[in-house]
Write a structure and sequence with these properties.
By secondary structure, the chain is of the alpha/beta class. The chain has a single domain, classed as Sandwich (Hypothetical Protein Aq_1857, Chain: A). Helices cover 15% and strands 40% of the residues. Strands 3-2-5-4 form a four-stranded mixed β-sheet. Strands 1-6-7 form a three-stranded mixed β-sheet. Strands 8-9 form a two-stranded antiparallel sheet. It is globular, with a radius of gyration of 14 Å. The termini are close together.
């Protein structure tokens, strides 16, 4: 997974505001929503035992081990417009999304694709 500059800047701002210098953002996926899956994000002080650690543009993002194949090749962006500001995942493994944009359907990347990351 990689971050755009906008996403990295926003993660950095949020980590600094948290008051925990060692904090990082943990990203995963969970079952839920009308399309079947949803992205999850939480601040943590350290990665879980099997998390993947991504350091990009000066910030640390921890990828939940159960989500690695779903997030392979994903770009995380932060988008603002007149009515909202949010993290957006540009994920090549996404097969569909619900109308509200809160839920997605994902197919895990094939194991042979791991070498191409």
């Amino acid at each position: 997974m990689r971050l755009t500059q906008a996403a990295a800047d926003r993660v950095r701002e949020l980590v600094e505001a948290s008051g925990h210098a060692s904090a990082g953002l943990r990203v995963g996926v969970t079952k839920g929503g009308c399309a079947g899956m949803e992205y999850t994000m939480e601040f943590v002080d350290a990665p879980a035992k099997f998390d993947e650690i991504v350091e990009d543009r000066g910030v640390r993002v921890f990828i939940d081990a159960k989500a690695v194949l779903y997030l392979l090749g994903t770009e995380m962006d932060y988008v603002t417009d007149k009515l909202s500001a949010k993290f957006v995942f540009n994920n090549p493994n996404q097969t569909s999304a619900c109308g509200c944009g809160e839920s997605i359907a994902l197919t895990p990347a094939r194991p042979e694709a791991l070498g191409a990351a």
